[in-house]
Design goal:
With 204 residues, this protein is an alpha/beta fold. The chain is built from eight helices and eleven strands. It is globular.
Length: 204
């Protein structure tokens, strides 16, 4: 049985700050648009993590604010911060630095690394990611942690929550930006139909 989940979002000033810095981006024809999940989904909205990672003060401030937004019970006693490749690694390391603990990156197929958790049963972890889109990758990660007996808590942190059903995750989502974004198949993408080019590929 999945407990009721919710969304916690930082003050909208963060959304404005990230937009002004070109980190939270919305595209329009004839500019580029975003390709997610190996090209299966297209959108006009993205969190530009490359720009975020080149702005360490912004990243540090955002991660600190997200930790403060967590209920105390969710950050107290955390011994591992867990995320997934490719963009989760620098984010996990930043949260681990702030919490004074270790960061671990779990591969896309978590079953490839069960030995990583052989000495982690009973440890408390915090799961973080750059953005949640459909929630599929995070759901697999959380399910794997649960199967290994690792306490993954009641909340996950996503720098951007782009509309994944929080109940699917079975966790409350704490984010700097929470917005349901448009997602299209390639054949239905209005930006492709209008000739938008220069797509930037983001794997989730």
């Amino acid at each position: 049985m999945i407990a009721e989940a919710s969304r916690i979002t930082l003050d909208r000033s963060w959304r404005q700050q990230l937009a002004e810095a070109g980190i939270f981006q919305k595209f329009s024809v004839p500019g580029p648009h975003v390709v997610y999940e190996g090209g299966a989904l297209h959108s006009d909205t993205a969190l530009n993590v490359h720009r975020l990672f080149s702005a360490p003060e912004t990243l540090n401030g955002m991660c600190s604010a997200l930790l403060r937004a967590l209920p105390p019970r969710c950050s107290d006693g955390v011994s591992l911060v867990v995320s997934h490749p490719p963009y989760g690694e620098p984010i996990a390391k930043k949260f681990a630095d702030l919490l004074g603990c270790k960061a671990v990156i779990v591969p896309d197929d978590p079953s490839d690394s069960p030995s990583t958790w052989s000495n982690s049963i009973g440890e408390r972890v915090l799961v973080v990611t750059d953005e949640v889109l459909t929630g599929g990758r995070m759901t697999r990660l959380i399910s794997f942690l649960d199967s290994m007996g690792v306490a993954s808590g009641t909340h996950v942190i996503a720098l951007a929550d782009f509309g994944a059903p929080s109940l699917r995750l079975g966790r409350s989502v704490v984010s700097a930006i929470s917005e349901k974004i448009p997602l299209w198949s390639p054949s239905d993408c209005p930006m492709c139909a209008a000739g938008s080019c220069g797509k930037r590929r983001i794997e989730l």
